[in-house]
Amino acid sequence: MRSIEFEQISKTVESLCIAACYELPEDVRQALERAAESESHPGASRILRQLIDNADIAARDRIPLCQDTGLAVVFVEQGAEVTITAANHAGPVTLVEAINAGVRAGYEQGYLRKSVVADPLDGRVNTQTNTPAVVHHTVVPGDTLKMTVMAKGGGCENKSQFRMFIPTAEPAKVKAWIVQVVKEAGANACPPFVVGVGIGGNFELSCLLSKRALLRPLTEPNADAFYAEMEEELCSEINALGIGPQGLGGDTTALAVRIETAPCHIASLPIAVNIECHSHRHKTAVL
Questions:
Q1: What confidence score (pLDDT) does residue 208 get?
Q2: How far apart are CA 101 and CA 9, in angstroms?
């Protein structure tokens, strides 16, 4: 077994939170550059170049890419041979406690907006720490701990949708609904988007798949040829909507569509769409 210290985990999460909010991933920046070059609308191209400039300024000056620094969503792959220890803590500690400690420190030290309310309906009082984080934890073989922090803004998250189709639904009907979800999101979700789609599993797993799909590099299509083609077709159909950067028209409404799938019940076809704005903020570390 391998032990990883509580403090090492929290410090890593702290740095991931700050880096995610300050530094646009290189694949996203390159996608914006390609879109700016290919845009047939001069206004849309200008907006895309402003988004690139914004990313450059944020990285250089160590300031957030966007004022909405998001809800911290943390994907964890814990090796089966990894345990969590804490020499400076009395009693047992958990991985989730270490993650939340890191989020608290990251949002404080990075001067990031704290956007979490303790109760969703009764008072909606801000926790002042941007915790608790949403943690998705899986156990995998090995002795490493992989953590990915996604800073998920409210504007794009609010436009995500779920639908349970009948199992005989044709792919064309499924694609039409996905495109409609993006159309309804429009300017309110800050295009150009990265669109995550989860197909299969059950009610909750399809939604998780749609968010996990957002973590796949924009340069990496689905390994399955059927879904890779579907990703390309959806992206083309979404861009044909003409919503464009910031909803002001253009060829670039989506930078990419990414699909993840899972086996499902014979009577079900759950599908979820999770929309991500142009500030597609996520960072990964492996301990």
A1: 98
A2: 9
CA distances from 140 to 77, 78, 147, 246, 250 (A): 6, 6, 13, 40, 43
Phi-psi region of 153 (alpha: psi -120 to 50; beta: other; left: phi over 0): beta
Q: How many CB atoms lie within 10 A of CB 49?
A: 17
Question: For residue 192, is the peptide bond before it cis, meaning its omega torsion is within 30 degrees of 0?
Answer: yes
For residues 38-62, give the mean pLDDT: 96
Residue 79: helix, strand or coil by DSSP? strand
Question: Buried b / exposed e across 98-135, counting CB within 10 Å, b at 16+?
Answer: bbbbbbbbbbeebebebbbeeeeeeeeeeeebbbbbeb
Under the banding of pLDDT at 50, 70 and 90, the label for residue 91 is low
Q: What is the pLDDT of residue 263?
A: 98
